[in-house]
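Researcher: For the record, we're logging two predictions in this thread. I'll number them. Prediction 1 follows.
Model: Prediction 1, sequence and structure:
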Amino acid sequence: MASLRYAARALLATPGFTVVAIATLALGIAVNTAIFSVVNAVLLRPLPFRDEARVVRVWTTNTRGERSNHSAGDFLDLKRENRSLAAIAGYRGELAAASAKPGETVQLGLEHVTADFFDVLGTPPALGRTFTGAADLRGERQVVIGDEAWQKLFDRDASAVGRRVRINGEPCTVVAVMPKRFEWIDGSSLWLLAQQPVPPSPLDVKEADPLTNRDSHYFEAVAHLAPDVTIAQAQQDLHAIAATIQRDHPDNGGRDVRLVPVREDLVGDVRDALLVIQGAVGLVLLVACANVSSLLIARGAGRRRELTIRAALGASRARLVSQLLAETALLGLGGGLLGLLASLWLVQALVRLMPDGVPRAASVSVDVPVMLVTLAAALTTSVLFGVVPALQASRVDSAQALKQSGDRGSSRTRGRAALVIGEIALTLVLLAGAGVLGRSFVRLQQVDPGFAVEHATVADLMLPQTRYPKGTDQARLYHRLIDGLAARGGLQAVAVGFPGPFHGANASGSFVREGDDMHAKGERPRANIAAVSGGYFAAMGIPRIAGRAFDDRDRAEGPDVAIVNTTLAGRYWPGQDPIGKRIRTDDDPKTPWTTVVGLVVDTRQLGLKEAPPPLLYVPYEQFSLPFTTVAVRSGLPQASVVALLKAELAAVDPDLAFGDINPLETEVRGSLAEARFRTLLIGLFAALAVALAAIGLYGLISYTVAQRTREIGIRVALGAAPRQVLLPSVTDGVVLALAGIACGVVAAVAAGRALSAFVFGVGTSDPLTLAGVSALLLLVAAAASYLPSRRALKVDPIVALRAE
């Protein structure tokens, strides 16, 4: 305790040093705490599922190993034949219009789930009870609601259980409310019990018994492993069942089954990005600690006489070291507390900046575990980086140290120089990463999406299958909606089309070209499929290269037609005119041919970073789906366009509601959100590191110049030119920078591999970026070295000669 009191007095005696040291540590700790809060919430905090490690997502895979959804027939075989799963449940998500009061409809995420869905997850409800089995299938439909639905529909009224809610116009009874901490993978807040052992299909299935269908893969599955069964053992079991299914149904496409832990599926898309960002802020903390260590070395040099006198009076070296470490511990504690306070604001800013799609983002906070980790890290780093300065400062030679003309501490200067080299190397790694991400982001912004984003608005629409079960019903509503919007005036083009831009969801299938050998082995041509109306290309601003758009001839009863993009035409009819080519979607000779009537430019349908896939556009009346995107082009203000859309949909069906309604420009910006977030954060951290490295180099050169005060005074008195006085110090700084840059380039090349998944159009070890950031650091180093040297020239030579 006496050591801590003395340490506090010693720090208060040098307020300038103390403030700078604490502020430097606080800066590094604050950004680390903020990012660790995100990492903790997203990656580390336990999921709200019973026995989380035994909950797995169940995927089917095609011959290329790509994940796919389940068909009813395959899923029921897996459920019946497996011996390794305690329970397996199917689910399918969509947007739904929900209302608990007349005239108050909200759009919420809905999952159609089988009866054992909550048995698999094992999370107890906050109110009521979850589905119990076959008894729940009798009578009115039953629904479990999440915290968001509870808030929007019932204002968190505890009497919500047992009350009625209309979902897509159908009355349902609320049987449970899930706790706020319960969050499913896609953010749904309604779980509606399916009336059959599989979720209802969104497609108009023609089979007499839809439970035997093996062609329509439309829902996902989650399972709980049986006791004492590992994922590897369950994988072998399901692999054998998949092989049996393939043997009994050879037209099934060679599908297999893959199990993925639910945590990996939940956070897999963001894990690498968060770890890269956490690594970046870790480098910032190292640079900050190196700066503080450098300050401690300089401070120790200034306290040599004090430490020498204490040693002469009987203080042991261990006593001196413990005293100096007590001071660094207080600095670490002060920096930790100040950094913790700053991180509370930083976390709020981070949550606002985070792109959509980051799982569990709403739960990000500086909680007790984060606080404890922060304080422990602050104390640990401060003590670790204070050990070397403490040992160096406590190494005293009484006879030598009491001589004013003795050694000025060249070993201390070498120690600080090593720290500065390390700071510059770490800073270059951050700058190189920020530069690569920045150039990649610029390249991404320059990508042509294939459609004109100005004056276009898109709105998501999902039709309830209970009221629009058949493709003809869906097509009829789309037709009424398009005609109604066109009749209202003010809109230049109106259309519907699935999938919407950057939605990520796609229908796809294989086909046979006219003239192909239908019995030939090997993989057939494949394409993504878009179901669109005739005005889609005008509404989206997609240029047509050849042929025609869809028109009134392309009804359900008319000949099957298609429009292809340039990627599909170039891949499957290279060097040929695709107009007039014919394809067939299956081997049945009774299936009518589909004729290609148009050719359009490629669009970046899956995202600006993704190469355009082969895309086959078909008229929505010939391939109708219960989900679509309404696209309009207009010069009207956005608020007017939104009002028109909502008014016409209410006129067509008052129980329907749009999902997101956004300008197409907003959709494009949203597709860049993740890249923008990463680039912004790494850039900010790199800027902080540059500032800290510059301060560290400035401090070292200032210390060196102060040691050379007598020499400078003599040289100036003898008539030395300013250039001759400045050059040695500036040269020292540049040499240190070059050493740090050399180390940093090697480290940046090695660390660049961690960025490979996040860059577009540039290499992770881009020579131009490395050259640019190296030049920047050299300029910063030259400036940081020049300023203290320039200041030394203003010292009166007589005063300088008296310094000794």
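Researcher: Logged. Prediction 2.
Model: Prediction 2, sequence and structure:
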Amino acid sequence: MLEAALADAEGGQGSVVLVAGEAGIGKTALVWALAERARARGARVLVGGCDDLTTPRTLGPLRDVAAELDPALADALARGVGLDDVLNLLPGALASGTTVLVLEDLHWADDATLDLVRFLGRRAGALPTVLVLTDRAAATEEGRGLRRLLGSLTGSAVHRLELAPLSLRAVAALAGEGGPAPADVFAVTRGNPFFVAEVLAAGDLAVPPTVRDAVLARVDALGAPARELVAAISVMPYRIDRWLLDAIAADLGVEADATVAEAEAAGVLACDEALAWFRHELVRQAVEGALATTARLRAHQRALALLAGHGDAEPARLVHHAAHARDPDAVAAHAPAAAAEALGLGAYSQAVHHLELLLATPGPLPDQVVASAGSDLAYAHDARNDFERSDRWGRTAVEAAERAGDPAVLVRALVRFGRTVYWSQGPRAAAEVVDRAMAIAELLEDPGPRAAIHAEQPRARSDLVEVGPVAEPDPRTLTHAERSLALAEELGSRYLRGHAPQYRGTGRLAVGDPRGRDDLAAAVADARLDPRDELPVRACVNAAGATFRFGRLDDAERYVELGLSLADGSEFTAGAYRLELTLQGIRLSRGDWDDAEVGLRALVAWPGDPGLMQPLAAGLLARLLARRGRVDDARAVLAPVAQRAAGSPEIALVGPTSAAAVELAWLAGEADAMPALAAPALALAREVGHRTSASELCRYLQRAGHAVAVPDDPVHPWAPGLAGRWAEAAAAWAARGHRYERALELATSADECAVAEGLDELHALGAAGSLAVVAPER
């Protein structure tokens, strides 16, 4: 299979080969066999690996091969540019000739490396490259991000190899005549090729009781200097530069070349002119595991001192050794740089690990350090869609920034906190946070913070959180989006240029301006150029929600499908959740109620912390169940949501929840309870100027026969219904593709033909609960 993939690459057709199996199963041996044949045929072979560090190196395998792949790529990594700039160099670097690019031990990969694989996997067929990925199948099962990524790599250009253990017959062939009993070897090793080789290499007819004993017996056969050097470097789960190896040997007082040559000849180490490494990670682990605690601590201290003194060591390696050396000062010194590098390249999980390690160091940290680290941690948790932790660290960062008295630090903390608050609490709280940030930023000379806040203002005031079919217009959304666009051009900010058009598009559609569709289409097209998934998925979330509320259901469904395909395999689960929520809104509008119920139940049961979105999904599900006549089920779904919404200042939560409660009471035959249920939400809607919620609540109260004070300037298409113009209202709902509300307007009209048509539509929808109320005699 590998040779066929190589032949295709030589013809310009690239592919991805996933080689999976347990540790020692032969993945590396297979890959090196391909490498030898590829080099013999004139191909370029590049091998990079992920390391078993406390926190993985950001883009570790790409760093291993960058200089040989493209000097510009190595320079970009050294300068610390963003992930998109790094990845955009890759297609050109790989297009120059047949390449075998091997990324080993993907089970230890950082988030940015997973983005790298996703980026290359989608372009594999167009490059003359064989991308070979190795991972441990069992480890993949534990790593959700890697598992989803590998599952998302599909198509004719993707091949999968699951390596199996050796059979008893194969073990017997390797053991040969006069060796240990093959059955005994097989019983100890279960056919794992590495284990078999180690047991057979023990040089004794007696089979060692464990594979670890066999490995250590090989090491014990070395001379004392070589054993000492091997032990000292066993704490380094990465390929070791020869300068570092020489420095360690000098510190131990042993001769480097001779000891390394001895260990290489014994099959413990492997090396080339620049690097040395353990022949297998299992050998390194066995040697490290045999170290006494004091010896292991000393080895990490030595590695930390030598790497830190060299000046160009990767921060993740320094943090790894600092943590194991139990040196909190060194952790505090190196963790911020490691976290900044990880954040800059989109490795959010790795940034979280570095920052949590920093903030857990003993002793008080300066407030500015806590503010910066806490803000970064809030941002990283937000990107990973852990809103509870993001909210907590965002508050911590703001409090520390206030104590520090640095306005720039405080603005940064507030901006990042505002992003989390939008989903953890709601738009009103987010707007308050970014308004405070803007007031402070106006006093700063640097325009950068103001530009970032103008990008957050339209988001905080957009109707992104809305799940109903009617938009809530807010002219401030457009004002801030336009200002953000202008500042993006002025500052040359790709980030702002990617976000601002999304909110201008949603804002335009919310006020009925069809130009918003063009804005959204352009924003999605531009965002898809980003090599990561977060920005393209966010663009699809905005486009899907806005076009749905504008009544363009086909456009909305197309954006949902695109967004979900982009989110598949990524860790941006909040984007996937919001898209699924929009999809259920589309299904409800079209009358696909069976599918909508299944989808909404899945969203209500979604694990983790989807923030404000989960109660909104529950509210939709409760309304659907009530319409279908299952009032008791609806009550059970809505009860915890109503409890959460009670007393909340967020109309984005209180409005939809109260509308669900009011409709449920109506369909349950409890119309007298409706005004009391609606009153708090109506008061809040009028306080904050949320016309959509006020209009919907009043229309449902009207339908139940209650006198209402019609809101000033009600939102279309609720407006004609509130004014008694049922035909106009029905037409408006039909234009939005919303069958249920159209049917209600017809069925509750004074026109017999319209009533009959509305009742027929309710029958077709399966709205048994609604029929029982609007036509009890039928």
